[in-house]
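Re: the 617-residue chain
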Amino acid sequence: MEEYNSVILQNRSVNRPWGNAIFINSTQRFSFYTPPPAPSARKSSSRTRFCKSEAFDDMGSSDFSWKLEDHPKLPKGKTVAVVVLDGWGEANPDQYNCIHVAQTPTMDSLKTGAPEKWRLVRAHGTAVGLPSEDDMGNSEVGHNALGAGRIYAQGAKLVDFALASGKLYEGEGFNYIKECFDKGTLHLIGLLSDGGVHSRLDQLQLLLKGSSENGAKRIRVHILTDGRDVLDGSSVGFVETLEKDLANLREKGIDAQIASGGGRMYVTMDRYENDWGVVKRGWDAQVLGEAPYKFRNAIEAVKTLREETKANDQYLPPFVIVDESGEAVGPIVDGDAVVTINFRADRMVMIAKSLEYEDFEKFDRVRVPKIRYAGMLQYDGELKLPNHYLVSPPEIERTSGEYLVHNGIRTFACSETIKFGHVTFFWNGNRSGYFDPSKEEYVEIPSDSGITFNVQPKMKALEIAEKARDAILSHKFDQVRVNLPNGDMVGHTGDIEATIVACKAADEAVKIILDAIEEVGGIYVITADHGNAEDMVKRNKTGQPLLDKSGNIQILTSHTLQPVPIAIGGRGLAPGVRFRKDVPGGGLANVAATVMNLHGFIAPSDYETTLIEVADN
């Protein structure tokens, strides 16, 4: 794991130029953002933004002010503890729900003790800016939403904007691979489909066009046929479309061809380390130029393999395209550039590891070319994988943290290394450093190194909680914000017993923080960024655990689509405060306005609406 501290803790203020925000409306067209109505008329908008807000275009203009309105019913001056339980979702109780199995009396008491102060919020899909409800949330987009108070485009929407605006070709990732264009080949690997779940054909077409216009002289495309998110058999049409595009490039003097292919479920696109053989089949075809089937063109390949092997598009065996002499036309070699074009992360992580890691033992790579590799996006923010990517995270301005600091809120943030960047960098809109060093303190506790997290499942939960406790009792801070990583990081190991221990440790840490809040008469907000530990087994469509060929359960190590809890309370909570019932679809982005209210302020008018109300006694 790479440490964040070299990036995060720079003792300087953060400033960025301000500009116009663009969001995607319901018809998926680009539109300019219009200023929101007054707070009294506003409802939860759930608009998806790409970057900054036109409504607050100029910090220096007479229209803009960092000053937040006072809340008419909620007082200032209360210490607010914000605790993010990483990977802590809500699912049906069974033996594979480690949160349910673990002894978690503190979290249990929050759920059962005051129902009007506990609820669930959405932490995946469109609630955090991802394209569809099939997209699992993750720590990066989750903390972006928690801190920003608005939903910013992530995934496919972000790629669309980067391609349409041309920003993709100006970024560090593209300039990194561009170094290979003069003498090497640009290889594009990914799903050939317009399904829009993992990739889109039109994005590939734009990338081909833009790359050729920005210096790529030799391009090879390694296709993965779909048939899962689109109709089986549609791969032939997609290949025909791609071949026409490549022919047009060749007419312009670009040496552009399809180099290899195979079905997505049989070649390259495995996930959760279920079957490294899938990735190896892709490696052999894409890197080594070796496959059981060889053809002169990809249309012939797909048609023939569908007919002769009776395989559908998902399971086409790997093939390579060869020249007149029978040599592969596009193996990846030293000096080449490689881009994995999928925007969805889960089925790109394994190939990214094989392309990027020097120390790699999952299969024999035979030959490891010296390449420049970039993902379309960064697929795993915790692993910083890949290190280079074409589309950067969204630029997020006016985060809740920045507003609160400008309004005098003194802030303490803490976690251990693996999640330290999430309560600082990602929370603050993908920006390093302090907003105001005189009002902020960020503390990183080094994570265990050299071992997997299930070996020490308690991780640094106790140390984080003690730092938070000390910050609360010091009376130096108005907000104390922490991330407890246990449920997520131990859950990813697939070790159920260790994950149960991890959940218990996180619960004990919450207790320490709540006791401190009770002592100072403060307020707590307990929530999570996405699910993980609440479901540790793969399931069929009826919800029953899946078994492998030996009859053993198939362990799930990924995040989930489950909602996450949010609980509020403490002696400092004003009488009558409760969760509203008219925001049933509330998500992580609604938490920022909620926290601002608890500090005694009304959130900016374009923030997602608060989750709380003050009932008249």
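Residues 1-45, 52-58 have pLDDT under 50 and may be disordered.
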